[in-house]
Design brief:
The complex is a heterodimer of chains A (354) and B (101).
Chain A (H helix, E strand, L loop, with lengths): L8 H34 L4 E8 L2 H11 L13 E7 L2 H14 L1 E2 L5 E2 L14 E6 L7 E7 H12 L10 H41 L9 H8 L5 H10 L3 E3 L6 H7 L5 H23 L6 E3 L2 H13 L3 H13 L4 H13 L8
Parallel strand pairs in A: 2-6, 7-8
Antiparallel strand pairs in A: 1-2, 3-5, 4-5, 5-6
Helix pairs in contact in A: 1-2, 1-3, 5-6, 7-9, 9-10, 10-11, 11-12
Chain B lengths: L1 E7 L2 E10 L1 H6 L1 H8 L5 E5 L3 E4 L1 H17 L2 E5 L3 H9 L7 E3 L1
Parallel strand pairs in B: 2-3, 2-4, 3-5, 5-6
Antiparallel strand pairs in B: 1-2
Helix pairs in contact in B: 2-3
Classes of the chains: A alpha/beta (354), B alpha/beta (101).
Chain lengths: 354, 101
């Protein structure tokens, strides 16, 4: 719905130009957004959101009504097309910026890093704005880059009805500044945590690669790194060879909880489990599928039968086996039937009688 | 081997009736292709009347699981009998599916 506005002929001309070019703006919006999305995805940069919009007619008319005299033509307005990339981490704002620099021509004179222009008594937690251009399109557009917390600030700030840095009653100024400072601090802390975690993962990977597994505690990260070494592969292949079975690779991450539940503390403990119980696991598999024509198994067969062999051998009994399957598949009475079956089978297994 | 498919709101339930051996797997592969069309939703394989499953049957189940994983859906295997549960366990398939009693 177009509101009735008092616009002079100059502003009316800008609005006509806008309407004539609106379809092209929408095309460029999609092109730019897709290039940005693809580039960030290729770089493995996970962002919270990429938003875009083409300024609406009423919004533009309102702007022109207020300050139309500042613009000689539509090309002077740089926010008809606007995109926003919202990152999780503060360091990623700079990475997105460098991707944007590579993808588009930047109008440096009009681009601002609002993060750097705070006055000492100003408040706000602002973002990086680039004014960009692409070939074959005469109009510039704006890309804002900010963290989720900067985004939160911008939205809350907008809601107070005050533009950053102006007209805020002094009594609220201090609280707003404290809040902005806190968000900045939180963003920095998140970044630090990420850096420390990355560093921890690198150190763990180095320890895993060098074989110092006894020094590596079991957690989600370390277990994932360990799985890259395919520690159960040899056992799985040995089991598969029985029936010339194909092995379906599946995630073994659910076994993290099982290994922890049976008391293993380090990757070295898992490695020892493989060393000490592979024969038992193989005997279980032999007993179960050796006389069948089943020629497909999943890669979880190795860890599953290792855990069964271990639980049986240490006397964990039916309750231990049921607990394991309850953890893996959800609690079920049927898991008790499986546990009973395994207990029965275990009497015939050589490793149990050693 | 018989498969009865009911679908509603992008989800499907299939009643599997009989013995899912190698010839039966070929016979019902078309039904599983139909089921794969619901891979973005929830597919329930009702095995109340399924008596037996072979490797070929496991492969059919697995292909459905892969289709569902690719499209963000899920496959629920419901009411498998003791023997089939045992086959799932012996092959390491037990924790690949959400299994309901």
């Amino acid at each position: 719905m177009k509101k009735a506005r008092q616009l002079d002929p100059h502003c009316e001309a800008i609005l006509r130009e806008y309407q004539d070019n609106l379809p092209r703006f929408r095309e460029v919006e999609q092109e730019v957004k897709e290039r940005l999305r693809q580039t960030l995805a290729d770089a493995g940069l996970l962002v919270a959101a990429i938003e875009s919009r083409v300024k609406g007619y009423d919004s533009l008319a309102g702007k022109l009504e207020l300050k139309g005299h500042k613009y000689s033509s539509l090309a002077d307005l740089t926010d008809i097309l606007g995109l926003r990339v919202i990152t999780f981490y503060i360091d990623d704002v700079d990475k997105v910026a460098s991707a944007v620099e590579r993808l588009f021509d930047i109008d440096w004179e009009n681009s601002v890093d609002k993060r750097k222009i705070h006055e000492i008594d100003s408040f706000g937690y602002l973002s990086l704005h680039y004014i960009c251009k692409v070939p074959d399109f005469p109009y510039r557009f704006e890309i804002q880059m900010r963290t989720l917390l900067q985004h939160a600030w911008a939205n809350m700030d907008h809601d107070t009805g005050y533009k950053s840095g102006v007209e805020i009653p002094r009594r609220y100024m201090r609280n707003m500044s404290r809040l902005a400072g806190m968000l900045e601090l939180v963003d920095d802390e998140f970044s630090k945590i990420r850096i420390e975690l990355t560093d921890y993962r690198r150190r763990v990977q180095a320890l895993v690669r060098s074989g110092n597994l006894d020094e590596v505690p079991i957690d989600g990260d370390t277990f994932r790194s360990y799985l890259e070494l395919e520690p159960f592969s040899q056992l799985n292949k040995r089991i598969a060879a029985m029936n010339q079975a194909e092995i379906q690779e599946v995630s073994l991450m659910p076994y993290l909880a099982i290994f922890k539940a049976i008391g293993l503390k380090t990757l070295g403990d898992i490695s020892n489990l493989i060393r000490d119980y592979s024969e038992g696991a193989y005997q279980i598999a032999c007993y179960q599928i050796g006389l069948t024509d089943l020629d497909i198994i999943s890669s979880s067969i190795g860890p599953q039968d290792l855990c069964i062999a271990y639980i049986l051998k240490i006397g964990g009994g039916k309750a231990g086996i049921k607990y394991m399957f309850d953890q893996l598949n959800g609690e079920s009475e049927s898991n008790e039937t499986i546990a009973e079956m395994l207990m029965e089978q275990s009497k015939d297994l050589p490793f149990m009688n050693k | 081997m018989e498969v009865k498919i009911n679908n509603q709101d992008g989800n499907a339930t299939a009643q599997l009736i009989g013995r899912l051996d190698t010839p039966a797997s070929q016979e019902i592969s078309g039904d599983f292709e139909t089921l794969a069309q619901y891979a973005a939703g929830t597919i329930i394989l009702d095995c109340t009347q399924l008596e037996y499953i072979s490797s070929s049957g496991l492969r059919l189940f697995l292909s459905l699981r892969k289709a569902a994983a690719a499209k963000g859906g899920k496959v629920i295997v419901k009411s498998i009998n003791k023997d089939i549960r045992s086959v799932f366990m012996m092959t390491g398939f037990l924790n690949l599916f959400e299994i309901q009693d």
